[in-house]
Amino acid sequence: xxxxxxxxxxxxxxxxxxxxxxxxxxxxxxxxxxxxxxxxxxxxxxxxxxxxxxxxxxxxxxxxxxxxxxxxxxxxxxxxxx
Length: 82
Hints:
The chain is α+β, with helices and mostly antiparallel strands. The protein is about 30% helix and about 30% strand. The chain has helices spanning about 15-30, 60-65, and strands at about 5-10, 35-45, 50-55, 75. A 4-stranded antiparallel β-sheet has the order 2-3-1-4, with helices on one face. β2 (about 35-45) and β3 form a beta hairpin. The radius of gyration is 12 Å and the shape is globular. The two termini are about 15 Å apart.
């Protein structure tokens, strides 16, 4: 399954607890779109959050994030990994 890295902006001040809750919201419904969210990282100062997932396509990733209230600004395929 293809891997994706998505980026969120505007999440200034995000705490570990808030990031965990947002990630869990994605996990709770990820099966609806065949997505497997694997990890999330956040930077409270810049307001950026990054997530890595496996999904059928970028649109599936976007739909899950939109439904959980934190839409991804950008979604990138990750075709090469080491």
